[in-house]
Amino acid sequence: MHYPEPIAKLVESYMKLPGIGQKTAVRLAFYTLDMKEEDVNAFAKALISVKRDLHFCSICGNITEEDPCEICQDTTRDRSIILVVEEPKDVMAMEKMREYHGLYHVLHGVLSPMEGTGPEDINIASLIQRLHDDEVKEVIIATNATTEGEATAMYLSRLIKPAGIIVTRLAHGLSVGSDIEYADEVTLLKAVEGRREL
Amino acid sequence: MHYPEPIAKLVESYMKLPGIGQKTAVRLAFYTLDMKEEDVNAFAKALISVKRDLHFCSICGNITEEDPCEICQDTTRDRSIILVVEEPKDVMAMEKMREYHGLYHVLHGVLSPMEGTGPEDINIASLIQRLHDDEVKEVIIATNATTEGEATAMYLSRLIKPAGIIVTRLAHGLSVGSDIEYADEVTLLKAVEGRREL
């Protein structure tokens, strides 16, 4: 005898999540069995809702319930700046800061020759389309500080600058609250290169 | 702006699982967003099915889709032995061994004065009921080797022995393939106490 069919199926589903192997999946499945019925139903509903009710904004590519998204629709935001990020969660991280009031553009990936991701595979064409609008004065590139993120930033900068738009990149350096002692060399180098007069 | 409502709800659900904090829940929610729609639907269905289609066997307390469970219904099994475990997953672990052909009884817990779990809170009454059947000759107590598991084993043994039924306990000792060097003292003590002539 193996696990009863419903448990086996749930184990299989849990194992599709990142970082969850068979043992953890079995533990989670049995835990689910002991959960309150309403909690399990809410969980199932939330799973379906995430796929059914969320779409990508046709302007900026961010995830949203309505199209265009709240931010693109918001007339109080500064339409002269577009901040370019890799993923929707980066938009949410930026919004948590509460100090950026421009617009966003989500690439949904980065250029990666290793993985065969070229400019046509990510959301670049629609960004260029948006720049034809005279309002845009600055593009802030906020891709991650990885090799692919840097290469994408460089690619976009070369593509956009000729149009007379200012292209900037987020500052890299030491995290606030971090110890120099524990910083890696690349971060330290960026911190020294980007030093500012007091 | 916080996360869109559907994501926030899914994060909340993931956080109800053991060992999953907010950061992991957010990561899983965004991962879910990128999963294939059919996989997410299967996941939701499996969650609901686990609560809806599984019940406890009215005889042994094991989880089952039909009542009585497959094992209790199986006439080829030895009805003179009942193996008592704490949880349904212990039954599945035993069945994996493929060498035990008797019946089971699932307690759904252990006696724990610390947590206020007394004999009436776990599935003991129905075990005693089953013992009135003349067929039962031996009860193997396979509760875990924890303080509560040992106490429960002792309690059951005192309750059952007067009825003239043999009560046994699984052997404790070194795991197969383990090093004596790394075994804890209690396990070593059990291994010495339980030594057998070669």
UniProtKB/TrEMBL annotation, chains A, B:
NCBIfam families for the chain: recR (TIGR00615)
Record-stated family: Belongs to the RecR family.
Gene3D superfamilies: 3.30.60.80, 3.40.1360.10, 6.10.250.240, RecR Domain 1
CDD domains: TOPRIM_recR
Residues annotated as domain Toprim: 80-175
HAMAP family in alphabetical order: RecR
Protein's UniProt name: Recombination protein RecR
Keyword rRNA-binding: no
Keyword match Metal-binding: yes
Chain's role: May play a role in DNA repair. It seems to be involved in an RecBC-independent recombinational process of DNA repair. It may act with RecF and RecO.
SUPFAM superfamilies from the UniProt entry: Recombination protein RecR
Pfam families: RecR_C, RecR_HhH, RecR_ZnF, Toprim_4
Keywords for this protein: DNA damage, DNA recombination, DNA repair, Metal-binding, Zinc, Zinc-finger
SMART domains: TOPRIM (SM00493)
Gene Ontology terms: biological process: DNA recombination; DNA repair
Zinc finger (C4-type) boundaries: 57-72
Name of the gene: recR
GO molecular function, one term: DNA binding
